[in-house]
Design goal:
The protein is an alpha/beta fold and 392 residues long. It has helices spanning 9-25, 30-37, 41-54, 121-139, 178-186, 195-206, 265-269, 271-278, 288-296, 300-324, 340-353, 356-361, 373-384, and strands at 57-63, 75-79, 85-91, 95-102, 107-114, 146-153, 157-158, 163-164, 190-194, 215-220, 224-230, 233-235, 328-332, 363-366. It has three domains: 9-79, Winged helix-like DNA-binding domain superfamily/Winged helix DNA-binding domain (Arc Repressor Mutant, subunit A, Orthogonal Bundle); 84-198 and 374-384, ATPase, nucleotide binding domain (Nucleotidyltransferase, domain 5), CATH 3.30.420; 211-368, Nucleotidyltransferase, domain 5 (2-Layer Sandwich). Helices cover 40% and strands 20% of the residues. A five-stranded mixed β-sheet has the order 5-4-3-6-9, with helices on both faces. Strands 12-11-10-13-14 form a five-stranded mixed β-sheet, sandwiched between helices. A two-stranded antiparallel ribbon has the order 1-2. β10 (215-220) and β11 form a beta hairpin. It starts with 8 loop residues before the first helix and ends in an 8-residue tail after the last helix.
């Protein structure tokens, strides 16, 4: 028998560069792959031919937008399920959500369940394991088909240790290594991050932040969190606390925050604070969503509370906008559904708190991904995390 041919290391390296470009970018054209990889057109074509034959890549019938020069619409190349799956899990204070996607950026399954605030961390992770198993089974896949899992937690995460860096914010998770605990249950690698960071990444890739390179994301729900994208990359900071605009002091005479400081934005404009305020006149309101509905329906008290919250958030964002000079400020979370009722006073306050060129450059918009943003961001971190995938 003739000796078996050895794989060409150069061809393998080229294929891996193409696969990585597709993992990060999602569906794209052959021409864009050439530009992104820096490889020749012939090298990209040869690599794609091999990957198509092996089923890792599919060429869809979709068409990319015609460029300014016009001409034939190019076909779109994307990674298919054969290349592997990414799973995103979002642990909220009142919900648990899991998304299964392929590495071609297509969502294949999504499940969500309500949870009770303060529920034991082990029980929450057990439920997450069951949800992921059920979603995969429904698709005909197994855990071995998953290349990685992203996990969002509503607290800062120290990326060097995987620990929650502010246990007072999430006391029922104190001492827990969420990523390690979920990895032990699923038998797959897990990347854990703050939920607002993941919301920022999702909006940057697929939502209201598309097309920007520097973006600030603010999530206003039970509490207030934030995430930063700088030069196209998620910026976590030295201890995983970057973007924590909810713990900027806005009123030293206000109450003590769960972080231990006094007068944080979270105490003044976080969801819990806003609901507590509105209940003085509307005792039947128990959820932030109900307050937002009241404001949208024109209720005077609800309107005042939401507009005041917008002003406080805008003032707190002033220094951040001066410092990082973002192109986009994206507002997510339940309060974001108030739309212009919230954004108009926020923009006015921002003009008072930041220098004019920085304010002019920053478009303040509502997020597009809603409740799904953090779970989608957990998928996105698998798609973008270096060394998460070992290509065959």
């Amino acid at each position: 028998m003739p000796p078996r041919a050895r794989p060409d290391p150069a061809a393998r390296g080229t294929a891996q560069r193409v696969l990585e470009a597709l993992r990060h970018q999602g569906p794209t054209t052959r021409a864009d792959l050439v530009a992104r990889t820096g490889l020749s057109r012939a090298s990209v074509s040869a690599a794609l031919s091999d990957l198509l034959d092996r089923g890792f890549v599919v060429e869809t019938g979709e068409s990319a937008p015609v460029g300014p020069a016009g001409g034939r619409r190019p076909g779109v190349i994307r990674l298919g399920p054969r290349a592997g799956l990414a799973v995103g899990v979002d642990v909220g204070r009142r919900h648990l959500r899991a998304i299964v996607a392929d590495l071609g950026h297509e969502v294949l399954a999504e499940v969500a369940e309500p949870t009770d605030p303060g529920q034991d961390s082990g029980l929450v992770l057990d439920r997450a394991e069951r949800m992921v198993d059920q979603a995969l089974s429904g698709l005909g896949f197994r855990l071995r088909d998953v290349v990685g899992v992203g996990l969002g937690i509503p607290a800062p995460i120290d990326q060097s240790t995987g620990r929650i860096n502010a246990p007072s914010i999430l006391p029922e998770w104190a001492g827990v290594l969420p990523g390690s605990e979920l990895a032990a249950r699923l038998g797959r690698p897990v990347v854990v991050d703050n939920d607002a960071n993941l919301g920022a990444l999702a909006e940057f890739m697929w939502g209201a932040g598309r097309g920007s390179s520097t973006m600030a994301y603010v999530k206003v729900a039970t509490g207030i969190g934030g995430g930063l994208i700088i030069n196209g990359r998620l910026f976590r900071g030295a201890a995983g606390t970057s973007g924590e605009v909810g713990h900027v002091t806005v009123d030293e005479h206000a109450g003590v925050c769960r972080c231990g400081n006094r007068g944080c934005l979270d105490v003044v404009a976080g969801g819990n604070a806003l609901v507590a305020t509105v209940r003085r006149t509307h005792p039947g309101i128990t959820q932030l969503e109900e307050l937002v509905h009241g404001a949208r329906d024109g209720d005077p008290a609800c309107l005042r509370i939401v507009t005041d919250a917008g002003s406080h958030i805008g003032m707190a964002l002033g220094s951040l906008v001066n410092l990082i000079n973002p192109e986009r400020v994206v507002i997510g979370g339940d309060l974001g559904r108030a739309g212009e009722i919230l954004l108009e006073p926020m923009r006015l306050a921002l003009r008072r708190a930041a220098i004019a060129p920085a304010v002019t450059a920053a478009r303040v918009v509502v997020g597009e991904l809603g409740d799904r943003s953090e779970a989608l961001g957990a998928v996105a971190v698998v798609l973008r995390e270096p060394d998460m995938v070992s290509w065959p």
